[in-house]
Amino acid sequence: MDFRKTFDRIPEQFDQYRPRYCPELFAELEKVCGLGAGKTVLEIGPGTGQATEPVLKTGCDYTAIELGEHFTAFMREKFSAYPNFHIINGDFEAYPFAENAYDLVYSAATIQWIPEEIAFSKTYKMLKPGGYLAMFMTRSDERTANPALADKIDEVYRAHFRVKQEYSCKMVYENALNYGFINWSYREWTSRRTLDAEQYIAYISTHCAHITLEEPYKSAYYNGIRAAVQEAGGITILDTVPLYLVQKPF
Question: What are the b/e assignments for 51-90, b being 16+ CB within 10 Å?
Fold first, then answer.
């Protein structure tokens, strides 16, 4: 199964329930990368644009490449009012990008789907000398604020979560330094959100493997999750947004 297009099945739900990124992250990118008019930016796999509009608002020349056809159509409609918005419906790994073309290439929870040797070597060639590669995502902690509930959710998961293929995707972001990048930096921001049972189910239903759940497991799993969260009076999620930033030498 090619998990890369799994999310493309649910663009409206994905856009509604996926968390956005904090303003501090984009302020950091704008400051460090000097974003503004005259700068060229590429976003890899924007989905429905959780990390798009703050970059568009800098006035840069923005291009996205998105594998999903439904996501691409959604993005075109969502950001059509921005004259600096451009999107390619294509596969980043295969698309023939020009070399030395971008001041910033960035990924919001996407680049880890690409083999390291392609992701880092290709973005390096695409960037102008002095350009930046930025990688960030949301890492959610559902256990710290509600350990007893997390135990019950784990029980439901073990009892009912059955998919044909498990999602497995990881990247060592520091390895970008092995491909010629320099000036490694790391920052993170934290926040919390509290969801009721229906909100939580809507949110986890946008997770990759959850989208592929089939009956009879799907109903049993979500009924168990709903009961556990309702009994607990809701769930508090602690979110961390890490930003990994590297630079192509001048």
Answer: bbebbbebebbbbbbbbbebbbebbeebbeeeebbebebe
